[in-house]
Design a protein that fits this description.
Elements: H1 2-30, E1 42-49, E2 54-62, E3 65-66, E4 70-76, E5 79-80, E6 110-111, E7 116-120, E8 134-141, E9 144-152
Antiparallel strand pairs: 1-2, 2-7, 3-6, 4-5, 4-8, 8-9
Amino acid sequence: MPDRATSPVLGIVLLLVVTVALAGTVGSVAFGTTPPSESPRAAIDLRLDADANRLTLVHRGGDTFDVRDLSVRIRIDVTALDAQPPVPFFSATGFRPGPTGPFNTATDSRWEAGETASFELAETNDPLISPGSEVVVTLSVDESVIAEVDGTA
């Protein structure tokens, strides 16, 4: 007879565990404790023209974002450029005037899928793109990396 008494006790303990787990879930939803949202992401292609020292970035898909919030960092053969592009810009130290697309201050600053942005390095920037150079471009918004692309000139 003592064996029969353990089944109801075990059932009550399991019922209490399930009740506590459900209460915790309902409480977290009710008090708005949700996981942090993901940072924006984008699929970006990099095209390089060593003869013109031109970098072209193509937004292939993902989130639309404002380039005024964007940070662009470029490394050529593991060396960071002396002057990084302050997007958007029209004329900036280390770059030829007149970037294209949303990197130009005269255009819409929203960069959407399908749009292309490009700029050319000035001879005063270092290092320059040469044939065979490995170029890495890191795009960030609020210290969060959106995309990192690389290519060989």
